[in-house]
Amino acid sequence: MSHLTKIVVFLVIVLVSESAMGAPECAPILRTLDPCLPYLVQNPGREDSPSKACCDGLTTLSALPNVKDECECIKASVLLTPLDLPRFAALPSVCGTTLKIPTISGDMDCSTIKM
Description:
This protein is mainly α. 57% of the residues lie in helices and 0% in strands.
């Protein structure tokens, strides 16, 4: 599967999961991570480091007010998309920012977030 095909599949999954899940609205949250896909997807041609656009999106994500929605959306994307989880978990550190969510993984517990 080509890199572009994987990105298209990811976007379709995001849009379908958003309509199926109702709230939270994940598409706007996950769009901030779109530039990170070339770094995060599991394929031999992936980028060695995240782009500036990726890190800028992550910084934008870290400033969003509803951290619980952010966490639920990222958790759903991790479960639905073949991403390199260790890379995803390290992304805030690599980009020099922090997220107010638990360590990124398929079993991250968003209920522990204090609003």
